[in-house]
Amino acid sequence: MEAVVFVFSLLDCCALIFLSVYFIITLSDLECDYINARSCCSKLNKWVIPELIGHTIVTVLMLVSLHWFIFLLNLPVATWNIYRFIMVPSGNMGVFDPTEIHNRGQLKSHMKEAMIKLGFHLLCFFMYLYRCEDY
Amino acid sequence: MSAPTGSPHPATNARIPPKLGGTAAAGATTPAGPCSAPHQQNGPAQSQMQVSSGYGLHPQNYITPSGHHSQGPGKMTSLPSDSQCGDYYSGLYPVPTQSAMTSSPVNQQPGAQQIYGRGPPAPHIVGSTSGSFQGAASSASHLHTSAYQPYSFVNHYSNPAMYSANSSVASQGFPSTCGNYGVSTVSNAAYPSVSYPSLPAGDPYGQVFTSQNVPTIRPVKDNSFSGQNTPISQPSPLPPLSQQQQQQSLSGYSTLSWSAPGLQSTQDNLMRNHTGSLATATNNPTLFSSFADSLSYPVMQNVQPSKPSPVVSTVLSGTSSTRTPPTANHPVKPVASVTQPSELLQQKGMQYGEYVNNQASSAPTPLSSTSDDEEEEDEDEEAGVDSSSTTSSASPVPSGYDALEGGSCPDMLSSSASSPAPDPTPETDPAPTLAPAAPHPTKMAKPFGYGYPTLQPGYQNAAAPLASGGQSSSPVYSGFQQYAQQYPGMNQLSSSLGGLSLQSSPQPESLRPINLIQERNILPMTPVWAPVPNLNVDLRKLNCSPDSFRCTLTSIPQTQALLNKAKLPLGLLLHPFRDLTQLPVITSNTIVRCRSCRTYINPFVSFIDQRRWKCNLCYRVNDVPEEFMYNPLTRSYGEPHKRPEVQNSTVEFIASSDYMLRPPQPAVYLFVLDVSHNAVEAGYLAILCQSLLENLDKLPGDSRTRIGFMTFDSTIHFYNLQEGLSQPQMLIVSDIDDVFLPTPDSLLVNLYESKELIKDLLNALPNMFTNTRETHSALGPALQAAFKLMSPTGGRVSVFQTQLPSMGAGLLQSREDPNQRSSTKIVQHLGPATDFYKKLALDCSGQQTAVDLFLLSSQYSDLASLACMSKYSAGCIYYYPSFHYTHNPSQAEKLQKDLKRYLTRKIGFEAVMRIRCTKGLSMHTFHGNFFVRSTDLLSLANINPDAGFAVQLSIEENLTDTSLVCFQTALLYTSSKGERRIRVHTLCLPVVSSLADVYAGVDVQAAICLLANMAVDRSISSSLSDARDALVNAVVDSLSAYGSTVSNLQHSALIAPSSLKLFPLYVLALLKQKAFRTGTSTRLDDRVYAMCQIKSQPLVHLMKMIHPNLYRIDRLTDEGAIHVNDRVVPQPPLQKLSAEKLTREGAFLMDCGSILYVWIGKSCDNNFIEDVLGYPNFASIPQKMTQLPELDTLSSERARSFITWLRDSRPLSPILHVVKDESPAKTEFFQHLIEDRTEAAFSYYEFLLHIQQQICK
Questions:
Q1: Is the Cα torsion angle B1025, B1028, B1029, B1030 positive or negative in sign?
Q2: Which residues of A touch B931 (CB under 8 A)?
Q3: Measured between alpha carbons, how far is B418 from B344 in angstroms, rounded to an integer?
Q4: pLDDT per position as a tens digit, B291-336
Q5: B718 - beta bridge partners?
Q6: What angle do CA B780, B781, B785 make, to 5 degrees?
Q7: Does B584 touch chain A (CB under 8 A)?
Q8: Is the pTM for the entire model greater than 0.80?
């Protein structure tokens, strides 16, 4: 059972890592003017919910399987994801809004966030991997 | 603008390099768009097809005609067009056979179709022949004088085949049209691509100078050619050159820093000689002045090439006295001019020629190098080119040398004298710097350059003269940094500066500490002008006008740390498309730009030699193209530094086909009108239609101009205005969930072909819906339809809306709670409720369509959501609260006037704007109506002269290695005449390293406008109270930061530098602005509109809105009056905005930008009331009075001329309200008295105390 949980988490984490990399690549494309803000944001907004769900599932799974440490580790990131999603103003086109992404250093902060998430997911990945090997 | 347009237009591929063959082909392939028959815009072939097949089959049709066309005469690549039309039109006509109910007040539809389909064929043939003929002609001659405007080929976008044809035509035609278009300009006449035949080559130049320049290269890369580098290249002292040096010293250069000025000044000589040779050799002042006239550079006219002898003597004296004189000229010369020794560009230009002369004459001397010889050759060429007179210098006669020198010296004297006021007596400072041949070599270093960034020895070499000169007063001369460092204390600084009586330097005044609490009359008597950057005189003259381009800090701090310390916002305020009375338009085949950062060449670049220039933004060294060597103004060769691009900081280029992704679009106007019950009640239709009828001919555009109308209530009505119809035909689409266009081609029609129909429609429209019972408004679907209609071409959509959209996509709910209007706490719903309008705007922006919103509503209409459609599509927003044509005549009048301006003002289509700044600075936030497409590229579907922008800047790298920073705005747009143009503004500002200097250069108005923009953002993204706090904190922080630099002052006082003295007042005004006020009842829409205005208005208008001007007008006198067009305009002093200034005996005029209030006191002099208002006494003045009668009395004349003058000074003519002291309207007037206390807000004095409290905390 444990093994199943961690194998699933591992796969999920892989997906999240790829997603983070995708976010970073797309944002840096925008930074370098390879794509315009409109297409960048529509690309990214598509993946905001999958990311949110993917991460929430792992978190819940950890809670259910009573892995407290991993749960608590995941909790802040999951909360942040949900908070960010909920707090999008009604007039915006999603977490990434093409009309605002170039303003007030939003691009940079999105980039930073994606980087941090990548690091976090990598950490989780190895943690799950290690736990998988245990079983 | 590396990426010229963002038009997603597929036609991009169809660009064809201009070749002769191309023209022929293009000319031939365009039977459909003959230039001779502009009235049949629609491409006859295409319309025939349509007729036969009906619109259900359009997509196929589109392909067939394209094939047909390309098979025709087309040698050209019409291939891409097939795919194009696929992309292009398939989206457009999704399901054309839907239920189009044609309830026509007119004909039955089929007939109409036939009519409009059948019309064209005959002209078609004519057109084709003429078209091909002309094409051939133009190809054959390919002259710039070709009278055909290739654009007229481009008439119709909806014909795919033509597309490719057009694009090639246009690209082809562009270079040739340039000749035509320049007509209004200075440069056009001779400029064309005639490639300077008479010259053997420019090669000698290149060789010579490159060889000479070897040592220079390093300094170049250092990007500061500061004097320090010059020693490297100081080899051979030539006797004549040393004499040159003396000249240079004569010319009034700052004498302090020898090495560095040597650098430039020799260059200056070089350059000055160039034209000097013209003048001096011929000794013909008239010649020269006429030449100067043609240049239209007033400065040059002062140059008098008479050659008096005194020069020589001064030179001699110069030799003897080495370095004393600074003191002599000292009192005369203000700091500003001294710190930056370089002369005016023009003067430099003049020197150049003479230098050549000198060289030539010095050639025989043993010391002259081979390079000199070569220069001599050059100079021969030069002589051939420039004027016949310079030949004398070719035969260098030693005796002639003196003469030449003698001749040249006065030249410089006079030229330096001609440089603005500051140094009226250049003769007094001639001797100072005799450089013992040291400076000469610097000429070697940069023979032709006039490197700006380096030009400021005052900045960079300040230390040297100090050390060597060792004079007590020298710090003042040695540049701003220097003295600022020496006098850290504000008091000392200001006093010492004040003592020096430096007229032109703003520093002493702007740094004078002011105790705000004690200073009762903080507001100056005259309007506040933009501070002048502390640049040297030449740069200052060249700099961009503050009306178009302002920076909040006219002295840029060196580091971000310093900026943080100053606690002031750093940003730019732009008004790029302002109506200009004078604008140099440049027609040129190659637009010279930096190869790495794509900066346009501008007055602040430095020419390293004649062949190379160094970018002032990225410091890359670029080649000067061959074409640039020829100066169209002087018709001379080899003077790149005198080209208009390098002489004007605001120029407009006519762009070549490289700057288009598709052929320039025609002017297309679509009016989308609300005709629901509510709208009909308000009665705006009559005003709009009347206004349109009056201004139909004045709509900007050319023969391709297209116009269309849509109306909507719960359904959408289209109007078929295709020429040939006997009456306009109304097509109603009731399926608002899936909007389609019933007849896509005949809804936007050529203005001139269908003028009668349009007029019929406009006459009929106001009465068509009088009995409507429809109260719903399907704005969203109407906009979607408008987008579909416009997307093939782009253009302008004007939406008139009178209520909350209540049907279909984009419907909105009322969000305003009237009880919260005067809440002091949270103001909600400042942001949009739905992203529908934002998405639509972005779609529109992508298709180069701007949506302008006219909201004329009496109740809440959720402007916050609706405004998005204009905000992100670069449109503009007009709001008329409680509009009613009879009940509210002043609003009706305002609409009328706004419409007049709106319809007739200039317009630019498919525009993009890019702002560049010197390496080290970066832009991070933009304000205004546009879509930021990539980091620094603003996509503007339309640009209008009333649009303003703001940009926030940050300093990413330290600017320690440069003394100047530059900002460049380039606005690429398609004019209404179908030309692609680029308007370039360049602003140059000094970099400073001390906090005091930063404060000295604050532009308080710009800072306030930027803060207002930031506060709007903050209140939408966070909350209004946050924004208000931020505003107050801005004052508190900056004043306390300033206070900490002034340590010796008592803490009880609230001290501000003079440059910031109005800062608290303006911030208070902002807090009491509709946008940010709390506690006073403010309707949500009013508030949001004020925010929109703050975001999109240019600084001049915004300042009036924030802080109105108050004048007393019952005692106007001619004292200090100015004369405008033979009218005497009195200039009453500004009054502070406080009720204490309002006396009952007086009459006051308040200028709020868009509204003028005349307040009449209760016991106002009856004479005034009678003379000016035309009523016997106060009681008889009516409540609603909106204009002053034309009475034949002196006071009436004065008042009216003053008001007219105020009105003329702005594009939107404001409405005049006469407010009686006791009328209910007076609250509106009194709310603008921002220095007074209101129930919810501080008075100015209280605000100051509040700030002081905060600072002390």
A1: positive
A2: 37-38, 98-99
A3: 9
A4: 333 333 333 333 333 333 333 333 333 333 333 333 333 333 333 3
A5: B710, B731
A6: 120
A7: no
A8: no
